[in-house]
Amino acid sequence: MEPKTIKKIGVLTSGGDSPGMNAAIRAAVRAGFYYNLEMYGIYRGYEGLIQNDIKKLDSRYITHVLERGGTFLKSARSAEFRTPEGRSKAYENIKAHGIDALVVIGGDGSLTGAHLFFQEYGIPSIGLPGTIDNDLSGTDSTIGFDTACNTAIEAIDKIRDTATSHDRLFFVEVMGRDAGFIAINAGIGSAAAAILIPEKKMPIDHLVDKLKIRSKAKKSSNIVIVAEGGKSGGAGEIAEKVKKFLPSYDIKVTILGHLQRGGAPSSFDRLLASKLGVAAVEGLLQGKYDVMAGLINNKVVYTPIKKAIIDDKSVDEEDFRIAKILST
Ligand code: ATP
User: Fold this and answer.
1) 133 catalytic, yes or no?
2) pLDDT tens-digit profile of 103-124?
3) What is the 110 CA–ligand 1 centroid distance (Å)?
């Protein structure tokens, strides 16, 4: 497609929030100002686009947001945007504001929406991978993933203190939807006894054997990391099953939940979000549409959204092998 003249860009955050979204918005808006563009904030994701919750941004909006978790534009899940009628309303509002292009920051669902919208209405758009799950291809890391891993590790360190003091076995559930990236990273980074991820099945008897071996080796604490989307169930279910085999163990379950989404973004996520925010605006100006900007080997790469959401990205076998060696 020939590059279109772009003077006004709308930015939105959609789906689950992730630390670094603010930094990405700020970078896109700053880059827009640098290239003398008008920048618009679309509040509450696609829902705000449908309800015309759109404001022209000036530099005051993006002062002191880089370091804050969450998203000042707020995020939402919009059922209406999934319908042709909803997307038609969104298009009318974009036209009314004279917005020429969109930067959509979110996970695979949000990017799917952006792709569909581009197919239907031809509004140039670039997606940025904003999700703690790290489940998008076309980038080594998604915005918020690093912070979520740091948060999980910090929490697990604290759980280990109590696990050691009482010789307890803890099952800690981390987020990640159907992907085990947070689990494997947080598990390796916190010396977990075992890591259960959706990508690899670990039969309960294998887990029990592993825990028995560790018990014989007089390991002072046992923490098992469970990814939320695991096929054998969540941490609670797995703990129940293990309890049947190891009735004498003092077993506890902790679900880290939404605390993994919050907090100030790590330096890595600030840098990633800043680079990708600039890349989004520059990509649009260069006529790169319907793509996701990501960072691979520290270089900005634009991947067709369709590819970024469809290509299976799963936990590196090598990481899994290392986790296995370290937990023996
Ligand atoms: P996270 O991975 O953090 O949950 P996400 O972007 O995948 O983020 P979703 O709830 O899947 O979160 O998607 C966010 C929004 O994107 C949806 O509420 C909907 O408005 C839009 N969306 C998702 N899938 C589609 C689709 N197939 N068609 C149109 N819009 C969609």
Assistant:
1) yes
2) 999 999 999 999 999 999 999 9
3) 4
CA–CA distance, 213 with 224 (Å, rounded to integer): 14
Q: How far apart are CA 78 and CA 191, in angstroms?
A: 39
Phi then psi for residue 194, to 5 deg, are -160, 155
Which CATH number is 145-262's, of 1.10.8.10, 3.30.70.100, 3.60.15.10, 3.40.50.460?
A: 3.40.50.460
Which residue has the CA at smallest separation from atom 26 of ligand 1?
113
C-alpha closest to that of 118 among 105, 135, 100: 100
CA of 177 to the centre of ligand 1 (A): 13
Centre of ligand 1 to C-alpha 165, Å, is: 43
CB contact at 8 A, 208 and 242: yes
State CA 206 to chain mean position distance: 30
Find, among 56, 49, 98, 93, the residue nearest to 74 by Cα. Answer: 49
Strands 38-42 and 54-56: antiparallel
**Residue 59 near residue 308 (C-beta atoms within 8 A):** no
The pTM of the whole model exceeds 0.90: yes
Write down the domain spans for the chain: 8-144+265-310, 145-262
Q: Are strands 169-174 and 251-255 parallel, antiparallel or unpaired?
A: parallel
Q: Which residues are 299's β-sheet partners?
A: 296
Q: Which residue minimizes the CA distance to atom 14 of ligand 1?
A: 15
Which structure tokens are listed for 233? 């169930």
Whether domain 8-144+265-310 has CATH 3.40.640.10: no
Instruction: List pLDDT tens digits, range 114-171.
Output: 999 999 999 999 999 999 999 999 999 999 999 999 999 999 999 999 998 888 999 9
